[in-house]
Fold each of these.
Amino acid sequence: MSDKRDIKFDKEVPKDARKTAIRLFQQLKNQRVRLTIVAVCIVFYTVLNVCTPYYSAGVIDNLLSAIKNCVEAGTSFSISWNPLGRQMVTLFFLYVLTSVFYHFQAYLMASVAERLILTLRKQISSKLHKLPLYFYDGNKPGEILSRVTSDLDKVSETLQTGLLKLLTAIGTLVGAVAFMIYFSPLLTAVFLIFTVISLWVTKMVAKKNLECAADRQRALAYLTGIAEEYYTGRDVIRAYNHEKESMETMNSAVDELRNATKKTDFLTNCVNPLIRLLSRCSQAAIMLLACKWMLEGRMSLGIVQAFFQYINMAAEPLTETSYMLNSLQSALASAERTFHFLDAGEEKPDTVAPVLLKNAKGEIAFENVSFGYVPDKMLMKNISFTAKPGQKIAVVGSTGAGKTTLINLLMRFYEVDGGKITIDGVPTTDLTRKELRHNFGMVLQDTWLFGGTIAENIAYGKPDATMEEIKAAAKAAKVDYFIRTMPQGYHTVLDNEAANLSVGQRQLITIARVFLCNPPIIILDEATSSVDTRTEAEIGKAMKKLMNGRTSFVIAHRLSTIRDADNILFMENGNIIEQGNHKELLKKQGAYAALYYSQFA
Ligand SMILES: Nc1ncnc2c1ncn2[C@@H]1O[C@H](COP(=O)(O)OP(=O)(O)OP(=O)(O)O)[C@@H](O)[C@H]1O
């Protein structure tokens, strides 16, 4: 049963942030011009952003004194170009220019980030085809998918928003505080005292919030785990009368999640109003002092409004720095995971001078083949056998005996550790993988049909096949009639994992796929219990027809179907312990005979 103590949540921290940042930057080297323009825009934006409020203080004060002069002189108010009109237009253009620099860099940065993500996605896509199969054995599909989606999205988002904020934060903060001190050291001190208090409060709440969020995550994962467990085991739970216990465990998990969520929600919802309250208090205190000084003539209105602009400017980097650093850290962790994936060991490259195998006859030989999934633990030792063109080879053995492994080696999904496998006398390592696999057709129990039309699915191995060829293949597999009864016939789109087809129909379509490719060698994994007897007979007939004239390897689950095999490989613990035809093996009175008599006696 799932145990919530087993569920761990790692904080998103890169192992080597510096190395990852440098590597990420290297990926941007073809975008140097754009990045330089972005850097220039950021510098101009920061300088203008910090200097404009200072300029605005003078303009507002001049405007105010012009209004005052008019009121005192009893004349109507007008603005002359020199100096007030000029100053106001300059201020307007300063704001416009600041905004232009900001938006231009944002536009460029978005295109830099998306180009980078496109490059990385292309690298991942090409990597997926170069990875050896054992990589997929050790990694969950969800993990690999998240490299392509959420990890790269996070990098892009941080490059576009977080990085700009971080780069402008120091300049803005230093500039704003410097101007504030210049205007009034006392008001600046009031602002800084309140800021330090609110930073401290945020830190305390954030720490507590992080703990509660981890508790909530744990409680949620536990609840999801047991819900899934109970759902899949519902029959067994009922059969053993464990409904009450399951319900109690479920209720306590739901309760725990409720408590954890309550705490997290409270902390999340209370932190913002608290910070806002502190910021209002600080602004009220500053405003009180500033108004007093204004009344005493010690401070002008222009300076007060400029001071408040600086307060807003300085508060943002101060309160957001920790968020920005976290998001940068988490983006670097994402980038690190992506690079780790891109660095994974690839399949041994194809030979540089490959042999071309035109019209293979289909003679296969295993010569003293040894293999282990784990380097120092050999599963197969010195396996040898030969399959003459057109022969039927049956591979038999209990579960885990090594039947699939034998096929994996034949198809070069894994590389042998010793000995060699030849096809028409040519070692498979002397061919390119593409050339080798071109000679094989596979019909497995787990059929794989993709989201496309039935015709496209049949033509998967020969995309340029004509409709006539596709129909002929379907006819050969005895699935043509069924396809024609579908609403759009061959153009019926299969989606949702071909849920509208039965297991047997899916298998017949994959048989048609092999008929179309017409390979000299085929691999068949016999259907077990997932189809009814009639369908099984239909599949059996189609397979028999497919085997006709081709070298075939049949992974057999029932001994009744392999009596006519030319060679039966009886496997145990990864090795072939007996081989020969049905009669020879019965005569031997060995493991095959024992199994045969146990099934048919
Ligand atoms: N990717 C892998 N990594 C490590 N060990 C593996 C891997 N695949 C299979 N094995 C191990 O190799 C042995 C042979 O497995 P294989 O899948 O070839 O057996 P099988 O005869 O096809 O079994 P089944 O009839 O159940 O499919 C088993 O002990 C299995 O646990």
Amino acid sequence: MSAPDAVPSLEVSGLAYAYPDGTQALFGVNAVVGRGERVALLGPNGAGKTTLVLHLNGILGGGLGTVRVGGLAVDARDKKALREIRRRVGVVFQDPDDQLFMPTVREDVAFGPANLGLRGEELDRRVAAALERVGMGHVADRPPQHLSFGQRRRVAVATVLAMEPEILVLDEPSSNLDPASRRELADVLRSLDVTVLMVTHDIPYAAELCPRSLILSGGVIAADGPTLDLLADEELLREHRLELPFGFDPAAAAARPR
Ligand SMILES: Nc1ncnc2c1ncn2[C@@H]1O[C@H](COP(=O)(O)OP(=O)(O)OP(=O)(O)O)[C@@H](O)[C@H]1O
């Protein structure tokens, strides 16, 4: 956890956003995430989770309010600041195919750091380390489209890790992963020394990985607290259309050693 007086990793203040067709997705989101925290962003379909994520590194902009990363404002009009923000905030999208577009896995993972000016052995080392981290070193020379969905997800995570971001934002990281890949990705996320914000409908995954959760509902933060406390609040869950999977017991999860 960060010291109370430290600049937070991420600070969202009064963020409101309507899509060009007039759909109001965010109604004034306020949230602060400290350095090194792992926070889950929970909420029902259509709550605004992806819309919020798209504001964190300036993919969407032009709404009301502010987003700050390490004290630096995310401003789509300020190209220099945006470049710095994109170095600091790595977003892993829900669909890995939004992230993989080069002829080989190696080139995809090298793309971001090469853009930052890395070359030669330093670039090779960065790529190899990122691929090793997600257990995908053996597919470096294959075209991404020849990999399975779960393998592409892991490569997409590697493309972001290769940038050595301060904040890792993941949209539904456990979806479509088999149980072993799901656990391996959890081990990777736990081993990283970065701030993690994870959008997920996978409640056990949130409980396992994120000590704190935010519930986004109807475009506002409806609750913010220790994950297991929020999950033990049946009324809160019902109000925001969140359901615990059959057999999942937050009290038992709280008692389990980590
Ligand atoms: N490109 C778009 N144009 C117009 N409205 C959109 C667009 N994308 C999303 N929306 C609307 O914005 C609102 C928030 O959507 P968003 O995708 O952020 O929700 P979400 O919490 O990520 O949902 P899910 O859990 O289903 O992924 C919804 O009402 C949705 O219909």
